[in-house]
Amino acid sequence: MIRVGIVGLGYMGRMHYRCWNGLLGAKVTAVCEANPKVLAAAGEPTKGNVGGAADHIDLDSLKVFSDLDALLAAREVDALSITLPTFLHADTTIKALEAGVHVLCEKPMALSVADCDRMVAAADRSGKTLQIGHCIRFWPEYEAARELIRGGTFGRPIAASFRRYSAMPSWSPDSWFADEQRSGGQPLDLHIHDTDYVHHLFGMPASVSSVADVPQSYIATQYRYPGGPAVVAESTWRMAGSFAFEMSFVIVLEGATILYDNNASPAFRVLASDGTSPDLRIPVSDGYAREVEHFSRIISGEPLQPVITPTDARETIRLVLAEKQSAREGRPVTL
């Protein structure tokens, strides 16, 4: 039985709590939360832009800590889900790895490439698993699209566009999302989902060219791949509060078009040029549950190829920071 601790009991902490509790062979045994108001609200419904987070957490069944050092010293856990604000990811992850604990750290990995490098080095020294929670790599429809492309049945990719639209996050107790020094801003928090998927799907581009508003609450990027495909991604936190969250894509292949829109029915479609319909079986799940399951299987000793490595996540940070630089300076940035 894997004993799991969750560090940070906000919206994403509750999401990880739900995912871990859905697994056989794992049990959440401890939580660490420094904010007493967050702990007091553990029995109440939570807010977020995607459903699935636990509406109720029974703290009486868990060991509750307000200090990470105390949690690690108690040796109550084999693995941690770190679901803290981004600026705390690096130091918290390194401390946990050095204590001999496996770590699933929420995305983004960190605010800087230098902090990512410290995390990679700590994982290498410790011999423990570090996985960064890029859930879109595990999202069933995004995973299916990648498999269709890699399978080659419909030829090579010609073009791809990705969209991610949301109102400004309002569920954090101290509005840390709005503080770029703590969150990295919209590009590192929201846009990075599609940036990482572009990286996962097509590799690192030769360069990026981005446009954004002044606080970068909106950003659109062209990723240049010599010889193709043509790839763009757009995201924003500027939607009206009543707007339903959207994540969507259109991928054009030589012999088919793949479409996904989380608000559409059906959400996922493959339109083949010859009129045929591929036999698709999309799992009824989400990327959060699937990334937690993948992590649990790896730390249990299953010989799996990691879907994402710490170095992959580090490169995605480098890519998003290049996008931010491009938008800020009004010029393409070479990777």
In short:
The protein contains ten helices and 14 strands. By secondary structure, it is an alpha/beta fold.
What are the salient characteristics of this protein?
six-stranded parallel β-sheet, Rossmann fold, 2 domains, 335 residues, Dihydrodipicolinate Reductase, domain 2, 24% strand
Structure overview:
This protein has 335 residues and is α/β, with parallel strands linked by helices. It folds into 2 domains: 2-133, Rossmann fold; 136-282 and 309-334, 2-Layer Sandwich (Dihydrodipicolinate Reductase, domain 2). It contains 10 helices and 14 strands. The chain has an 8-stranded mixed β-sheet. The chain is globular, with a radius of gyration of 20 Å. The mean pLDDT is 95.
Separation of termini?
43 Å
* Relative helix content: 25-40%
Give the strand line-up of the largest sheet.
13-12-11-7-10-9-8-14
Work out the strand percent: 15-25%
Number of strand elements: 14
- The string of secondary-structure elements, in order, is EHEHEHEHEHEHEHHEEEEEEHHE
| Shape, principal axes of CA atoms | globular
Judged by helices, strands and strand pairing, the structural class is: alpha/beta
- Average pLDDT confidence is 95
- State the fourth-level CATH superfamily of the largest domain: Dihydrodipicolinate Reductase, domain 2
The tally of structural domains comes to 2
Q: Count of helical segments?
A: 10
Let me know the largest β-sheet.
8 strands, mixed
Question: What multimeric state do the chains show?
Answer: single chain
Query: Which architecture of the largest domain does the CATH hierarchy give at level 2?
Result: 2-Layer Sandwich
Keywords: Oxidoreductase
Domain GFO/IDH/MocA-like oxidoreductase: 142-256
Organism: Aquisphaera giovannonii
GO molecular function: glucose-fructose oxidoreductase activity; nucleotide binding
